[in-house]
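F.,

This is the one I mentioned.
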């Protein structure tokens, strides 16, 4: 086995000689925004110790000084010796606040999941009080196939791609939901798991082909609310809990925006208000109780 030390955190891992570093490092939070195509440089690591000869892809994206400093594309490394690598990369930050919102109290507990293109966030909520009792977040495991929704659509349209993207997403969300459920003294009181996300995430989670989203007029056939039993998804939570992915609004306007509109009350206000989602995909909503307009970009 080969030992790889990741700096600046000092994390040490062991891998088989010749293992694809792209597969190994992903589990440690390193992202591969272009899906390992060697274009984006975002996966760059600096070799502090060990031997990694530059590849053709390295030579095409790094200049001579950078190569001499040890910079390499992690997506192209197949390590043959022990390595110490410096990983310089963006880290996901979850922002939250205590803003009040309108809700109808009900019995039991629920889990709300935001299925983001980059980040998955789940909250365990007491449905009687609205209090958040637990939070789980992690990177979307689909990141290894590209950072944006267009790369995901491209991968999903390859043979077996949709199955793979659907399966890893359901497994990741399932493990977060299972961890939050384990916080409950009586897991049978978990009544509802609600997921929201953009239209591509909706399609990939629900195992719907995103093909209509890949070309004009970007009009998917199925934007509907989807309901699952936990066993259908392979999740180990009480099977009486209802799992629902909320409906999308349009081609690239998903249920995350719908949830934002409902939570902020934009649809009930008499004054025109704006809601802006600065995520991996961006959406701007403008409107009031009489009319709502929305634009989005990937
Ligand atoms: S260059 Fe984009 S993931 Fe490696």
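My design for it:
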């Amino acid at each position: 086995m080969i030992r790889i030390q990741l700096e600046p955190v000092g994390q040490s891992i062991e891998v088989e000689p010749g293992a694809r570093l792209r597969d190994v490092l992903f589990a440690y939070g390193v992202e591969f925004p272009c899906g390992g195509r060697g274009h984006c440089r975002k996966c760059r690591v600096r070799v502090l110790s060990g031997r990694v000869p530059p590849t053709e892809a390295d030579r095409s994206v790094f200049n001579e000084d950078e190569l001499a400093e040890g910079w390499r594309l992690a997506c192209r490394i197949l390590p043959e010796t022990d390595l110490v690598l410096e990983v310089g990369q963006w880290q996901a930050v979850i922002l939250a606040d205590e803003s009040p919102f309108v809700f109808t109290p009900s019995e039991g507990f629920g889990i709300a999941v935001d299925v983001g293109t980059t980040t998955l966030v789940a909250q365990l909520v007491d449905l009687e009080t609205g209090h958040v009792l637990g939070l789980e977040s992690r990177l979307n495991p689909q990141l290894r196939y590209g950072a944006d929704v267009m790369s995901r659509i491209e991968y999903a349209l390859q043979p077996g791609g949709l199955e793979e993207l659907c399966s890893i997403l359901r497994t990741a969300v399932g493990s977060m939901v299972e961890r939050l459920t384990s916080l409950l003294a009586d897991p049978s009181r978990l009544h509802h798991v609600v997921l929201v996300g953009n239209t591509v995430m909706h399609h990939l989670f629900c195992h719907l082909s995103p093909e209509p989203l890949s070309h004009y007029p970007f009009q998917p056939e199925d934007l509907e609310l989807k309901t699952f039993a936990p066993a259908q998804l392979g999740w180990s939570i009480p099977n009486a809990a209802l799992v629902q992915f909320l409906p999308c609004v349009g081609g690239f306007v998903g249920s995350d925006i719908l949830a934002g509109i409902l939570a902020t009350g934009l649809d009930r206000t008499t004054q025109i208000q704006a809601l802006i989602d600065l995520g991996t995909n961006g959406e701007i909503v403008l409107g009031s109780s009489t009319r709502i307009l929305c634009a989005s970009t990937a």
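The longest helix spans residues 161-181.

Talk soon.
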